[in-house]
From TrEMBL, chain A:
One of its GO terms (molecular function) is signaling receptor binding. Its main location: membrane. This is Leptin receptor gene-related protein. It comes from Monodelphis domestica. InterPro entries: Vps55/LEPROT (IPR007262).
From TrEMBL, chain B:
This is Transmembrane protein 50A. One of its GO terms (cellular component) is neuronal cell body. Belongs to the UPF0220 family. The chain crosses the membrane at residues 26-49, 55-74, 95-120, 126-147. The keyword Membrane applies. Keywords: Membrane, Transmembrane, Transmembrane helix. The lineage of its organism: Eukaryota, Metazoa, Chordata, Craniata, Vertebrata. GO terms for biological process: late endosome to vacuole transport via multivesicular body sorting pathway. The gene is TMEM50A. It is found in: Membrane.
């Protein structure tokens, strides 16, 4: 089933992304765990999309103001996840090498989340 | 091998007209939040009042308020379409939009004033906070414009 293959690929890329994040914190020369705060942004990034999906339950329109607002906030959360490590590196709380690893991890994790929505987002009920 | 690139023609598979609102929302979100992260960066690097007077944050706050006001009313309400009748009515929507745009332009002008009056004229050694205030407000302003005018309400029908 195509779903299983996609699931395995996505879980692999998710693990790689988290590995980059952990490397940015735990390597010998770094040892500072502040970058783990970007995990908060990763967790809340799908929420605007779910809220918009729930509010505009069924409509024929190809887009709606609520959906666009959700895209706006999701983009903001993604920007914040990239901005936080850069600011931490600029005030030397973390080293620039750690910042680079965290940014790479961010990119991979957000691609994973987007891949999850592309692969499994169609036709689901989102009934919790 | 000879025909494998034929499957990659993507200009027909994405309808750019339908995606216009999505792209505009994403660009607006990018601009708006980048503006705020620029000022967070400046505030974190220069925490003292002499380098970065904390009252300069008011400029960005008013710009954000203006962004919210401008985007709270839809073009349909201002035009007077019978479908979207907000609680303000058509004239109220126009006045709301007017005040919103005046606050937006005002905060942009204020950021320029802060940069030139507070940093350039006084020949401060550290000018980055002034530049950060200006770029914050410029990004928030353009983010607001893109969000307001980059989207079309035809896709909402």
């Amino acid at each position: 089933m195509a779903g299983i293959k996609a699931l395995v690929v996505l879980s692999f890329s998710g693990a790689i992304g988290l590995t980059f994040l952990m490397l940015g914190c735990a390597l010998e020369g770094y040892g500072v765990y502040w970058p783990l705060f970007v995990l908060i942004f990763h967790v809340i990034s799908p929420i605007p999309h779910f809220i918009a999906k729930r509010v505009t339950e069924d409509s024929d329109a190809s887009s709606s103001a609520c959906q666009e607002l959700a895209y706006f906030f999701t983009t903001g959360i993604v920007v914040s996840a990239f901005g936080l490590p850069v600011i931490l590196a600029r005030i030397s709380v973390i080293k620039w090498g750690a910042c680079g690893l965290v940014l790479a991890g961010n990119a991979v994790i957000f691609i994973t989340i987007q891949g999850f929505f592309l692969a499994f987002g169609r036709g689901d009920d989102f009934s919790w | 091998m000879s025909g494998f690139l034929e499957g990659l023609r993507c200009s027909e598979c994405i309808d750019w007209g339908e995606k216009r609102n999505t792209i505009a929302s994403i660009v607006a979100g990018f601009l708006f939040f980048t503006g705020w992260w620029i000022i967070i960066d400046a505030a974190v690097i220069y925490p003292s009042m002499e380098d970065f007077n904390h009252s300069y944050h008011a400029c960005g706050v008013i710009a954000t308020l203006a962004f919210l006001m401008i985007n709270a009313v839809s073009n349909g309400q201002v035009h007077g379409d019978s479908y979207s009748e907000g609680c303000l009515g058509q004239t109220g929507a126009r006045i709301w939009l007017l005040i919103g745009f005046m606050l937006a332009f005002g905060s942009l002008i204020a950021s320029l004033w802060i940069l030139f009056g507070g940093y350039v004229v006084k020949e401060k050694p550290i000018v980055y906070p002034g530049i950060a205030v200006f770029f914050q407000n410029a990004f928030i302003f353009f983010g607001g414009l893109v969000f307001k005018f980059g989207r079309t309400e035809d896709l909402w029908q």
